[in-house]
């Protein structure tokens, strides 16, 4: 057999279901208090610092991390439940999501102890927001073409250059970025990049918002001009970011956020067609639910394998490939079916407003966090084709 | 399930490798391979895996039997193994002992119905019954005035109009006209035709998933051998991305089918959660058979369209299996109705319950 792809039928353990109830109850309270409206997904991108602190107070941020850094030492499957319930409710997670999923784990692995002690507990309390500085104006998917320079100076580095498409940079307290500390070598074009922790909101950093086709301003251009980063903010090996940048990707790729981004239109469609759908609506809904269920089972399976210490890199890439293509097509399939919804459906306007937003959101889903083309390249490598 | 980790699957894979090698069978013009294969499977107790020992079977677990069906799909096995397993399982639901030899189940479509009259005779027509012509007995689910019964019927008592599905396997129409069964008992409460269709659908899903695993395997291998434009076609990005998509379809089918099998193996009843799993598996695996099989053919080019190449043994069977025990369209409508009936706010809790 060429490809031993594994998707064992892993179930979430019982304690996850208790946690799920707690998360649902918490979100219901927040909705009742007017923190957010689950029917308005476009508000997911708004900054909600108080909500972020309350999620932190619940112990749901950094929940898999060691207790000494403010974590709960709970399992990735428990984190999975919190993530999916937040996503389905359209909760405003923007402020803490990146820190919790990605930046915290990088710091845990590569930051010096005093920085971990300083920053990780604040992530767990929901106090700080992170951005990720990867793409540059002339390097997107080709991560290792990054040119923004970190020049060695007394006690640290001077940063000059521009990062782009940086989500949340306008509200972020920190960024984890890769900068060029050496030129690439002939043998290894990935050599010469170093991962840094950057404290935002300082002189020498200018954040310019970029308007998106959805009408939002969630990503930015970030310009560094002689910006100083101290030596202890180097994360991991100097010139060796290429060894680090790919290690956490399995977590990033296979989570519930990779197929639930437009889920709300399916719920609203089911509401609009009512309890006795015609054959066409029933078939359309049935197929979409079957596809959704399958993807979630794949995603949970990868989460379970990760929890068990395995490295299902190809499986995780498959989940993101299929998941993002699905969530991208979902608004269009729902729109097909919505054409036959009765004029009298009470939520018709809500559905139409949601579809407008989801259709505008859709193009980014197969681009952000690793394009479909990059993912399929990784899968092809796993199959032994490259 | 690429690597076998149970004795039932190991036994089966050994037999399939020795006696059901797709290339060997494909080169053989006659059906002479069928009898030794069936004999070896029978001697190993595999066709009656799901029948307890006191009812004439080998008493394997549901989970082991499901894994066996997945392996059978990987070899595109074309003898009534799945059908006999399902028949034995159905008869066991009413504690009817299973006879030796090939069996199949009827009805094999949610639309068909067999009725039981006051004299205890069975009547009705069942279309698309897999391997009816090869079967010595039928396991029949029948509707009478007192509810659902399960019966064992001598196959020679039925009228069979032979047919072939798109995979060139027998898919026949069986007509029963006041046939007296060999044995008949009422089904347990809650067991109905939908239960049988869901079980059959999951069996077919596992077979489709297995066939897709093999299609991925032989497509990757072929792309690493075939040279065009002075390089292996596996080096073309367009081919790589097609194969990555095939891997995705294969993975989705495997995940959906094994999840549903696991759900049934651990279920105490066929509730909404099991219904979601089983219906979803059939829908998603059928979609994967179309999309994945299409890519496998595209990668192979003209050679894959020939009878001498083994690809069609997988691709056409996977397409044919879509039709048995309710097509994906059927299950999509039924699942859609279930979801709509539960209401919008109950959709996520249902999905998350799995």
Summary?
The complex is a heterodimer of chains A (386) and B (354). With 386 residues, chain A is of the alpha+beta class.
Give structural notes.
The complex is a heterodimer of chains A (386) and B (354). Chain A is of the alpha+beta class and 386 residues long. Chain A is built from twelve helices and eight strands. Chain A has helices at residues 14-32, 49-57, 76-88, 94-110, 113-124, 241-244, 249-254, 264-273, 279-307, 313-338, 348-361, 372-382; strands at residues 130-133, 149-153, 156-167, 174-180, 193-199, 205-210, 219-230, 234-235. In chain A, the strands form two sheets. Chain A has a four-stranded mixed sheet. In chain A, strand 2 and strand 3 form a beta hairpin. The longest helix of chain A is centred in the last third of the chain and has 29 residues, at 279-307. Chain A is globular. The two termini of chain A are 17 Å apart. In chain A, 51% of the residues are buried. With 354 residues, chain B is an alpha+beta fold. In chain B, 50% of the residues lie in helices and 15% in strands. Chain B has eleven helices and ten strands. Chain B has helices at 7-19, 22-27, 34-43, 62-74, 81-93, 193-223, 237-265, 272-300, 311-321, 328-342, 347-352; strands at 103-106, 113-116, 122-130, 137-144, 147-154, 159-161, 171-179, 183-186, 227-228, 231-232. In chain B, strands 1, 2, 3, 4, 5, 6, 7 and 8 form an eight-stranded mixed sheet that branches. A two-stranded antiparallel sheet of chain B has the order 9-10. The longest helix of chain B has 31 residues, at 193-223. The radius of gyration of chain B is 20 Å and the shape is globular. Chain B starts with 6 loop residues before the first helix and ends with a helix. In chain B, 56% of the residues are buried. The model of chain B has no long low-confidence stretch (mean pLDDT 96). The interface between A and B is large, with 60 and 59 residues.
């Amino acid at each position: 057999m060429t490809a031993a792809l594994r998707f064992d039928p892993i179930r979430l353990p019982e304690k996850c279901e208790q946690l799920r109830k707690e998360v649902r109850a918490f979100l219901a309270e927040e909705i009742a208090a007017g923190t957010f409206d689950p029917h308005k997904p476009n508000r997911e991108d708004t900054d909600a610092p108080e909500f972020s602190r309350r999620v932190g107070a619940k112990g749901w941020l950094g929940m898999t991390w060691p207790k000494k850094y403010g974590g709960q030492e709970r399992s990735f499957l428990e984190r999975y439940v919190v993530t999916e319930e937040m996503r389905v409710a359209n909760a405003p997670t923007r402020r803490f999501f990146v820190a919790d999923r990605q930046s915290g784990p990088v710091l845990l692995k590569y930051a010096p102890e005093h920085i971990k002690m300083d920053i990780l507990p604040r992530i767990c309390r929901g106090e700080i927001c992170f951005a990720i500085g990867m793409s540059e104006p002339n390097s997107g998917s080709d991560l290792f073409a990054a040119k923004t320079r970190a020049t060695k100076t007394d006690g640290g580095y001077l940063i000059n250059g521009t990062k782009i498409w940086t989500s949340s940079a306008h509200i972020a307290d920190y960024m984890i970025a890769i900068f060029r500390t050496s030129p690439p070598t002939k043998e290894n074009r990935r050599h010469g990049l170093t991962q840094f922790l950057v404290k935002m909101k300082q002189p020498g950093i200018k954040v310019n918002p970029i308007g998106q086709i959805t009408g939002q301003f969630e990503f930015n251009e970030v310009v560094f001009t002689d910006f100083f980063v101290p030596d202890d903010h180097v994360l991991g090996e100097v010139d060796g970011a290429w060894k680090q940048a790919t290690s956490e990707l399995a977590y990033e790729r296979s989570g519930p956020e990779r197929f639930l981004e437009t889920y709300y239109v399916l719920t609203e469609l089911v509401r609009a067609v009512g309890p006795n759908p015609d054959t066409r609506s029933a078939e359309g809904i049935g197929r979409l639910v079957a596809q959704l269920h399958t993807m979630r089972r794949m995603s949970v399976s990868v989460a379970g394998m990760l929890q068990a210490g395995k490295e299902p890199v190809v499986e995780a890439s498959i989940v993101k490939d299929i998941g993002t293509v699905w969530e991208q097509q979902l608004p269009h399939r729902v729109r097909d079916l919505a054409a036959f919804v009765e004029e009298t459906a009470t939520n018709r306007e809500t559905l139409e407003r949601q579809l407008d937003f989801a259709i505008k959101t859709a193009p980014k889903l197969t681009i952000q966090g690793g394009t479909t083309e990059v993912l399929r390249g990784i899968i092809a490598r796993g199959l032994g084709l490259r | 399930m690429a690597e076998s980790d149970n004795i039932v699957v190991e036994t089966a894979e050994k037999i399939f490798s020795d006696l059901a090698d797709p290339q060997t069978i494909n080169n053989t013009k006659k059906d002479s391979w069928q009898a030794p294969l069936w004999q070896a499977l029978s001697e190993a107790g595999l066709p009656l895996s799901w029948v307890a020992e006191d009812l004439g079977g080998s008493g394997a677990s549901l989970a082991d039997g499901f894994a066996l069906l997945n392996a059978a799909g990987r070899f595109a096995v074309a003898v009534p193994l799945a059908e006999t397993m399902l028949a034995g399982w159905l008869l066991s639901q009413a504690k009817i002992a299973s006879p030796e030899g090939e069996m199949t189940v009827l009805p094999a479509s949610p639309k068909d119905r067999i009725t039981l009259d006051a004299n205890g005779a069975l009547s009705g027509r069942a279309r698309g019954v897999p391997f009816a012509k090869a079967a010595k007995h039928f396991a029949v689910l029948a509707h009478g005035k007192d509810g659902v019964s399960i019966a064992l019927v001598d196959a020679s008592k039925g009228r069979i109009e032979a047919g072939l599905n798109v995979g060139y396997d027998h898919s026949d129409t069986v007509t029963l006209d006041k046939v007296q069964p060999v044995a008949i008992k009422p089904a347990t409460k809650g067991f109905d035709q939908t239960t049988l269709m869901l079980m059959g659908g999951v069996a077919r899903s596992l077979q489709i998933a297995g066939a897709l695993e093999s299609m991925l395997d032989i497509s990757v291998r072929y792309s690493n051998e075939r040279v065009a434009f002075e390089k292996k076609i596996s080096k073309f990005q367009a081919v790589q991305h097609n194969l990555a998509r095939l891997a995705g379809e294969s993975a989705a089918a495997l995940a959906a089918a094994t999840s549903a099998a696991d759900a049934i193996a651990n279920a105490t009843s066929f509730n909404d959660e099991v219904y979601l799993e089983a219906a979803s598996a059939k829908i998603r695996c059928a979609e994967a058979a179309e999309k994945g099989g299409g890519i496998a053919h595209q990668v192979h080019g003209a050679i894959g369209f020939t009878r001498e190449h083994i690809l069609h043994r997988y691709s056409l069977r996977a397409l044919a299996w879509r039709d048995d025990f309710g097509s994906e369209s059927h299950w999509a409508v039924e699942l859609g109705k279930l979801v709509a009936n539960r209401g919008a706010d109950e959709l996520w809790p249902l999905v998350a319950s799995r």
